[in-house]
């Protein structure tokens, strides 16, 4: 059975989040959280929060054992971008896109329904 957690509108670019996700994909939840705890990335904190939420959803909503959970699917989708203006020389302006990310984690205990 699977349980899912989504964190939306995280103010970090998806391209910065995806390499951190690759480190924990397919690993047991406890091991994934241990890996993320010692990474110096902002993305690691946000991913850890989402994994903990998925684990809580699995144990509270679906009565799954928290020790048996693995990170089956984890991916980052692009959210809306905040558009800002940066003044440039000669009266011009450049657009700055502050990107956001939607983080999705699906944990599985390996049992079929």
Number of domains: 1
* CA-based gyration radius: 17 Å
Q: Would you identify the CATH H-level superfamily?
A: Ribosomal protein L22/L17
Q: Order of SSEs, N→C?
A: EHHHEEEE
Which structural class fits the helix and strand makeup? alpha+beta
Provide the CATH top-level class.
Alpha Beta
> What form results from the Cα inertia axes?
elongated
How many strands in all? 5
Low-confidence spans: pLDDT under 50, at least 5 residues? none
Q: Average pLDDT across residues?
A: 96
Give the name of the CATH architecture. Answer: Alpha-Beta Complex
Query: CA-to-CA gap between the ends?
Result: 6 Å
Q: The CATH topology is what?
A: Ribosomal Protein L22, Chain A
Task: State the oligomer.
Answer: single chain
**Helical content class:** 25-40%
Number of helices: 3
Family: Belongs to the universal ribosomal protein uL22 family.
Keywords: Ribonucleoprotein, Ribosomal protein, RNA-binding, rRNA-binding
Subunit structure: Part of the 50S ribosomal subunit.
Pfam families: Ribosomal_L22
């Amino acid at each position: 059975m699977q349980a899912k957690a989504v964190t939306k509108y995280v103010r970090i670019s998806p391209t910065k989040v995806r390499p951190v996700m690759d480190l924990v994909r397919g690993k047991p939840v406890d091991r994934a959280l241990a890996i993320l705890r010692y990474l110096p990335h902002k993305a690691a904190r946000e991913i850890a929060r989402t994994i903990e939420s998925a684990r809580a959803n699995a144990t509270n909503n679906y009565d799954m054992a928290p020790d048996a959970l693995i990170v089956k699917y984890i991916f980052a989708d692009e959210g809306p971008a905040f558009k800002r203006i940066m003044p440039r020389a000669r009266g011009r302006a450049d657009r700055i896109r502050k990107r956001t990310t939607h983080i999705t984690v699906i944990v599985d205990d390996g049992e079929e329904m």
